[in-house]
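Q: Joint fold for the lines below.
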Amino acid sequence: MMNPKLRYRLVKSKSVEWIIVLFAFLITVPLIAIIFFVLKTGISKISWHFFTNIPKPVGEAGGGIANALVGSLLIVLVAALIAVPIGILCGIYLSENKDSKLASYSRLAVDVLQGTPSIVTGIVIYFWLVKPLGTFSAVSGSVALAIMMLPIVIRSTEETLKLLPSSLKEAGLALGLPYHKVILRVVVPCGFSGILSGVMLSVARIAGETAPLLFTAFGNPYISTNVLKPMQSLPLLIFNYATSPYEEWHDLAWGASLILLIWVLLLNITTKLITRKWKVQL
Amino acid sequence: MKPIKGFSLKKVRAESAFKRTLVIMALVMIVIAAGIFLTLLVQSLPSIKALGGHYLSGKTWDPVSDIYGALPFLLGTLLTSFLALLISIPFSYAIAIYLGEYNPKGWLSGFLKNIVELVAAVPSVIYGFWALVVLVPMVRAIETKVGAAPYGVGILTASLVLAIMIIPYAASLGRELIRLVPSSLKEGAYSLGATRYEVLKNVTLPYTKSGLFAGLLLSLGRALGETMAVTMVIGNTNILPTSIFSPSNTMASVIANEFTEADRTVYLSALIELGLVLFLVTVVINLVGRMIIKRFTNE
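A: Joint structure:
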């Protein structure tokens, strides 16, 4: 016969455990609901036509999101071209000069950038680029997104390089290689997979960003490849059309949501596979 | 004198140029961060000068009559963010405890971890669209039942969708921190006959208290700055909220809605001042959170 007090304690412990399991797994409900809902509503809107055409004016059914697809790819590509080299070089500096004063201020600045709300980045880029250039432009959107990518790229580069044994670097230096070659040809390739997954994660993070593009890339109903002019992007199109009162535009927004969701989730899953294959810890 | 083999001025130059580039990149971060602050400050000067302290305490925001009081947005932001945080706490702590303490390995926890990461990955505009179509009718049904005005959009709806979006931040950080609890402490408690719940309550949670609090701070920072999903479901009403069912506006959603329409200097500047306040608050919350975590993990 079990002591009733002990029994009470064991029952309590078990029930708390079950409550925690229940609450923990409830997070799957909204995720599955969202994926299911976007899939269900979006899939019927997607056709070949959807990828190759631009949106029709209000009142006409059909039309596609070609302008947003081209725009999103271009804006994200330019953002990555800006953020990746700067981010990796800054990450190298921070891992090479751990204790310098500049490094600690720079790290603080990276923390500040990480905490900056994306809408605020949009405002600032409006004053840095849109106003001086006199027009909304895709490149200003890219710069805003690049600023959001930087903290992730820098962090993952710094953390990856810190984990590499210093013997690698010493071996290179002992062979008489100049410093920049040791870093670029020995250290960075060794940490390549960690840096790559950081870069991909940052791209996944910004691919769905809308707020910083509102006052920079602005949107464009036509296909445009001129980075100095306004450009449409998938998240912008979804926001504008989802909040419009027109049924045809909602259809386009659902189709675009599905494409964007698939794109972002694929980027995340690929990053995960890379991380697992090379066993990097982020 | 014979030059040393393999040594050349060119190489030395390349080396110092590389080092200089690295230093410049580190400086660039400082310039960007400081530049963001200074730009916001300079651009909001007209509004600070014209409106002064009334700006933060004013209850009316009416750009047509040139009246700019930010109190409705401050209140709207605080209400949505804290309500979202409150809703998210049981879920994020449950995930952190499950993944960190109850079941750190095994396929089921791997599955849950992936789910949490995907929740963080879904773009906020898709959360907003989904909430607009699915959550708004649900909230409207609740409002009809409790006798509130059935707007559907408003603080509660925004908090619900925000809560889902911020769960991953506190959860994954909490998991890392709970794993740092030394197993000797837990084993000691178990050997004294403590149950799993008692170990959790008396050892793990007190040990990770400060870290879990920091996780909440980071989630809060996230919630304060979140724009798109909130803008789509909060109702965009510039009046002081009276209950959690009221349609309202947050600082971020006002900026998103009105920035491109602001045609006068003071109007634009008043919006940027909102951005400045938002920036300062989120940055301070983030830095404090990070500081606590750094101290916690170094111990």
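Q: Anything notable?
A: The two ends of chain A are 51 Å apart (CA to CA). Chain A touches chain B through 85 residues (CB under 8 Å).
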